[in-house]
Structure formats: C-alpha cells, structure tokens
Amino acid sequence: xxxxxxxxxxxxxxxxxxxxxxxxxxxxxxxxxxxxxxxxxxxxxxxxxxxxxxxxxxxxxxxxxxxxxxxxxxxxxxxxxxxxxxxxxxxxxxxxxxxxxxxxxxxxxxxxxxxxxxxxxxxxxxxxxxxxxxxxxxxxxxxxx
Length: 145
Ligand SMILES: [Zn+2]
Description:
This protein is α/β, with parallel strands linked by helices.
C-alpha cells in the first residue's frame, strides 16, 4: 500500500499532461513503516520530476532515468531523512498498466506509479510493484489522504 496526498497525485497528473504526447517521469520520495513490510505504510512525502533521458523520438512510449539523477535523489532523500520509494511516469494514450518495457527495466521493492494521459488529459492513476521473482507486476493499493 502506498499513501499519497491529493496534491502530490495532482502534481504527477499535471506532469503527465505537460509532457504529453511524451512520457513524463520522476522519483518518489517518502518513508516506509518501521516493520519494513512493503504492504504496510509507504508514505509519499515528495516527488522529484526528472527529465526523460530517452532520445526524443522514443519519449512517447519510453522513459529513462539516468543513474546520476537517481543518485542525486538518494542524496536529497537522505538529507531529509526520507527514502526513494519508487518512480512515476505517464502513459500517453495508453492504459495505466506497466508495459513489457516497464517490466524489463523495473526492480522489485520499488513502487511504480503510472498515470494514463488520454488526449492530453490525465486519466487512470495506478501504482505497481514487481514481484521478487520479476515474473509480473502486482497492483498496489493507493490510499488517498
Ligand atoms: Zn510505462
């Protein structure tokens, strides 16, 4: 389960609309409940929009976050006593479900938030977690604050 305030969700939706017809992407910062179980209390504290590092012609259906950007996010998180909880990106004119490409490039443990953007307007909003054996994504419940 991941807990998200309405304004953070709104911020991700707006990012998706701004990037349309390309994919937006970014990093999710927050905290994890002390008992460490992934289904128990991930709370989003902030989002960091990242420039999509894919070549321009691929950005309509792919995103990439460079290792340096992830490292900067890790340092920013640590300073604020937060963790990198995962990533968000948009699916322009596609359902808010992870693609095969997303699965190949994902890692277990992280949350992957996807917002669909239909004709420039943000639609379905979902979160996913890759199974530890990498066989499939499981949808993660989003608790709205
Ligand atoms: Zn995707």
